Amino acid sequence: MAAKRDDQMTLVAFMQASNVTVYSGSWRYPSSAADYLDLRYYQRVARVLEEGTFDLMFFDDRLAMPSIYGGSSADAVRYGARPIKLDLTAVLGAAAAATTHLGLGATYSTTYYPPFHVARSFATLDHLSGGRAAWNVVTSVNDAEARNFGVEQHLAHDERYDRAEEFIEVVARLWDSWEDDAIVGDREAGIFADPDRVHELDHHGRYFNVQGPLTVPRPPQGRLPIIQAGQSGRGRQFAAKWADLIFTGDPTREIAVDHYNDQKQLITASGRDADAVRILPMVYTIVGETESIAKEKEEIFLDQLVDPRASLALLSEVTNYDFSGHSLDDEVTDELIDSVSGIRGLVQGVKKHVEGKLTLRTLAKHRATLLQGPRFVGTGAQVAEQMQDWFETRSCDGFVIAATHLPGAFEDFVRLAVPELRKRGIFRSEYQGKTLRENLGLERPARIA
Fold first, then answer.
1. What would the CATH number be for the domain defined by 10-305+373-440?
2. C-beta of residue 230 within 8 angstroms of C-beta of residue 344
């Protein structure tokens, strides 16, 4: 049976295989580790998260260096605004080798990778990790990514989702192209597998032609848990149809409650069990041994480490719009939002929920500092209390925790806040299942015939 929403919260750690976390000034924080090009860096963080019984270690990704702003990547390189993005296949393999229970999720684009490649990569990871892989389905964001793959311009918003619909259907069928009992392994008879239980797709669609079958047997989880974070109307509909975990970015609990109820209704309308889908807002946690220590850290993160040019480089990347021709004090108008072809829901959401006139300076700061989501700041007990309040008022089913710096942010949370969550009975003390699906309370899906 699928776990009901009021059991225990789900916790996801938001990662970048990069010189920075989501917080673009993290590389400047004095205790941030600088060995992000060494696999042991990711293994250390993974072991900390498994100690804290997190459900999932999740990696965001982009397929281009930020280069929309001013038509150049110079500011991204100069100010460390995510110029580095390692290939996630190797990173997740390293994390899998260092852990036993922790889920391992990654972003893979439906716009620039072919379905067979994605299906094979994730099925392989699921087998080698013992059933712990998850896929974040993204349609990709900007023209810089397009040019890295030999395309002059990014697809329009709705067409990206049309392509994604067919893409995910093909991937699901590839995962199911082997029946669970296809491998016979009869050494005496010399029969390795039953060909009647391994199936071609012979798919011919609008965007893809895929013969199949997949060269990897059906994954241990059957089909991997799907992550989605679309904030536009089309993105929310896509998430309602496909996602097991939905990442959100709501700045207040009241807004999160409305979003939660709306998304659950969409899930129900799509014919799925809304209780089996986890809605998880991204939050920052700044945990200190005392409240004053935590607040001092917060002040450093907010005001001292992010250069405005790094903010604009990231804002241009995430919206696929060059803001170099604007002043930081220019207002973000409805006309400007209409001209943005990237993450439309993000821009609209920030504009709606910022008090007073929304300037480019404020919007950029939301993208590069700690302003785009709630911050839970204080001692372990205080942070746990804030999380409990959100969880028990049905504004979420858990949280995506974005690190301010690594590995310290997760170390502080695991050592100081996780014990408090366990005391309150809203978070596990140990893993209950072997696979990620089992730990999320999700049933293993039947094979598509």
1. 3.20.20.30
2. no
